[in-house]
Amino acid sequence: MLVRPAQIDVYPPPRHGPQRPAVVAVRGEVDASNADEVGLAATALFDELVDVVVDLRAVSFIASRGLWILTELPLLARRHGVGCAVVASPATNRLLRIVGQHRPKWVFDTADMAVNAVAEESRTLEHLVPLRSPPAHCS
Q1: Mapping DSSP to helix (H, G, I), strand (E, B) and coil, where does residue 110 land?
Q2: What is the structure's pLDDT at 37?
Q3: pTM for this predicted structure
Q4: What is the mean pLDDT of residues 1-21?
Q5: Which one, 25, 33, 97, 114, has the greatest CB density within 10 A?
């Protein structure tokens, strides 16, 4: 059996044009050896106050260790004051079924649906979450 470890690509948001989230695209297999790497790629963007879509459409296998990407990562984003959504694959849907977890509201079938959800969440959060530190002109 050929094992295809996960490949993680990070696409930052465009500098010009309409505001879009960064994309963390994952391909291959997510297991105990690399599930945290996927999370670290996303949380590094949260620290920069960037909205994120985690695209798992090309994930062929996801072990239970990767469940937190589907269930907890978007909650962590919200605590950072940014939006996050996940694009599912058949493998991620299978994992949710196996563990008896209902599909979270931030897991979507298409990238467009995830991007739209992040944009909506970001608009909501910018009114609810205070800035991390006051702008320089306020001190």
Answers
A1: coil
A2: 92
A3: 0.84
A4: 79
A5: 114
